[in-house]
Design brief:
The chain is mainly α. It contains 4 helices and 2 strands. It has a two-stranded parallel sheet.
């Protein structure tokens, strides 16, 4: 029997009342060896135990329903895993978000200083 990441998220959420982060590895582990570095294929033959992006998406939805505050991924996770997790919990692509970045405005203090310097004609360090 293989344990999925949702088992540990549920145990963590039940154990504490503070914020909980869940960033599972994208590998199946057994109850006997609950860590991927102890699996027979470690370090370079874990492909057969890889969790699909849809399984990671299911995990993300379950974790959100459990009240997990920060959901991500760790070792073995790829962009497809994270993208499916985001989709499963209803996250939108950056260009569709209400709070999309305005690239016409400075995004950092350095960019703001450059803009002010260009507007005022001040020399660097002046």
């Amino acid at each position: 029997m293989l344990a999925g990441p949702h088992v540990h998220a549920e145990q963590m959420r039940e154990a504490v009342t503070c914020h909980v982060a869940a960033q599972p590895v994208a590998y199946r582990c057994s109850p006997e060896v609950p860590f991927f570095t102890g699996q027979p294929g470690f370090p370079d033959r874990l492909d057969a135990s890889k969790i699909s992006r849809y399984e990671m998406g299911d995990f993300a939805k379950k974790a959100l329903d459990l009240g997990v505050n920060y959901i991500g991924g760790c070792c073995g996770c790829e962009g497809s895993h994270i993208r499916q997790m985001a989709r499963a919990i209803g996250k939108l692509p950056a260009e569709e978000r209400e709070w999309a970045a305005d690239y016409g405005k400075p995004q950092s203090a350095t960019e703001a200083y450059i803009e002010i310097r260009e507007q005022t004609g001040a020399a660097p360090g002046a």
